[in-house]
ABC transporter domain-containing protein
Amino acid sequence: MRECIIETQDLVHTYPTGVTALKGVNLKIYKNDKISIVGQNGSGKTTIVRHFNGLLKPTSGRVLLFGEDTTKQKIGQMARKVGYVFQNPNHQIFCTTVRDELEAAPKNFGFSEEETKKAVDEVVELMNIQSVLNTHPLTLDYTTKKIVSIASVLAYKPDVLILDEPTGGLDEPGRVMLTKIIDMMIENGHTIIMISHDMDYVAENSDRIIVMCQGEVVDDGSPEKIFLNAEVLRKAQIEPPQITQLDLYLENGYPKEAILSVSDFIKKYKNI
Ligand SMILES: Nc1ncnc2c1ncn2[C@@H]1O[C@H](COP(=O)(O)OP(=O)(O)OP(=O)(O)O)[C@@H](O)[C@H]1O
């Protein structure tokens, strides 16, 4: 049986302004899940993931992280288990060189000097950022800045990696690198939770999609299931990936199997 590592039970979150962003969410996230959370602006995606590492506390209900209530765990302990890459790297980066940025979290989590060096060397090589190690991160171009912000979290290898809009502002090589990192993390048994409006990327890089609408989870399943659920897509105001839309147009309705990538599309149509 798969290990449930995050569970929300009747999770409600009301901000001090009176906005109720989560209206009783029940969700189980399993080890090695490759999840995307999707939904229109303001549907509660960021609010829910911020409960997974204790950045936000429930107004009512509970969140269990590795079986333990998040209100009973220290923020530092939870941050070690659940790494969070912010949507905007400028909100995450705080050191004056890339090297310091990459070393900050491992040192903070008690890695020895040797362990920190090994962790940083690995991530630098993986993400090919040797040439900017002594640069001030805020002077980098947006894609590199984003890559540094991901690398600074990857360096301590959290069990769960949350990526908030990871493709926003990334160029094509950046997207390719992101995919490589996600695949590597999944291969090594980690769990990925990505928030995204980029349905083309979501379709090809998730095993499970959670659809949110107005503070509730309105669907949860494989990309094949979600992108053929016209009612849910309409309710959550989500457009399927462009290639899926093209197939729906050619089929003149909903086919039995969703086409989620260009290679799926070519396979389906090449002999017609
Ligand atoms: N710090 C806050 N204070 C008050 N209200 C907030 C705060 N953060 C979010 N909200 C409100 O909570 C609701 C859910 O917001 P949230 O950011 O979780 O949605 P989202 O799905 O992540 O949106 P987006 O796709 O725009 O990032 C919205 O109505 C939003 O205005």
